[in-house]
Amino acid sequence: MKLKPSLPQPRVARAAASAFTLVELLVVLAIIVILAGMLLPGLAKGRQKAQGAECMNHQRQLQLGWMMYADDHAGALVPNWGNADAGKDADCPSWAAGWMDYTSSSHNTNVNYLVQPGVGDRPTGALLGPYVRDAKLYRCPADRSWVEINGQRAPRVRSVSMNLYTGANWMGPLAVQGLEAGYFIYRKLEDFRALAPSRAWVLVDEHEDSINGGGFVVDVIRRGETAQVWDVPASYHHLAAGFSFADGHAEIHRWRDARTPRTVRRETVTTRTPAPNSVDVAWLQEATTARELPR
């Protein structure tokens, strides 16, 4: 018996047999979405940890420069001028010059105000610069602040500020009140006695809406029920901020009071905020200054 040759299977039929059905495609997509949901938080957390490590490295290098400056100046701390005149002339020397805000001012983008003393319109600013040399160290890697200049966005160059009780030669009203109340303005390395160097913070990442001059003010007078916040610390690192200390170490300090971290609104903070019984304000106060006995 002669067999009839089988006809070749149509190409369309073969393709249809090997293709995904709609249900199978939806299942695959659902699996991808679930896996992405599981992986993305871990990736974000890993990125935050990496940024925190880089921030601490920046802080340590800045702090080393701060200590080297003191070594070269018979123990005297680098000047810390807290208002917009920082570095303007011989009467306003400062570790950093420039005034951070959200305007198109070149102060927001000019790295010379940080690392090049003796140039431009701020000849006595950037006194820490020769000991650091790298402008990127003045900006936390998690800082996303920017200004618009000639229609283009440009990153601001500084996110760190210095404790205004450390090296202050312009103190501002709050620091003056603290001085009058017996709190100490540290001007030499040997001044840290009641407040140990390992507990005395020097540099901090400041909130984008709060940063302006190079000094950071903590109200050390009003405590407990009357505590308040003037300058606002950042909370870049998962509700935490980078600090450096007078003994040379740096750390990421996590905030415990839900009122401390603030949303960035791109509006400069100009008012004091009550913070009664804030554990974060209490920590800052204890690490800012003490009632030292003058020598």
Draw up the topology in text:
Blueprint: H1 11-18, H2 22-72, E1 80-81, H3 112-115, H4 129-132, E2 146-149, E3 152-155, E4 160-163, E5 168-170, H5 172-180, E6 201-205, E7 215-216, E8 228-229, E9 240-245, E10 250-254, E11 273-274, H6 279-288
Parallel strand pairs: 1-5, 4-7
Antiparallel strand pairs: 2-3, 4-6, 6-9, 8-11, 9-10
H/E series, N to C? HHEHHEEEEHEEEEEEH
- How are the strands of the largest sheet arranged? 7-4-6-9-10
Largest sheet, in brief, is: 5 strands, mixed
Q: In percent, how much strand structure appears in the residues?
A: 5-15%
Point out poorly predicted stretches.
none
Number of discrete helical segments: 6
Structural class: alpha+beta
Per the principal axes of the C-alpha atoms, what is the gross shape?
A: globular
Q: Let me know the number of strands.
A: 11
Structural summary, described in words:
By secondary structure, the chain is α+β, with helices and mostly antiparallel strands. It has one domain (41-288). 29% of the residues lie in helices and 13% in strands. The chain has helices at 11-18, 22-72, 112-115, 129-132, 172-180, 279-288, and strands at 80-81, 146-149, 152-155, 160-163, 168-170, 201-205, 215-216, 228-229, 240-245, 250-254, 273-274. The strands form four sheets. A five-stranded mixed β-sheet has the order 7-4-6-9-10, with helices on one face. A two-stranded parallel ribbon has the order 1-5. Strand 2 and strand 3 (152-155) form a beta hairpin. The longest helix has 51 residues, at 22-72. It is globular, with a radius of gyration of 27 Å.
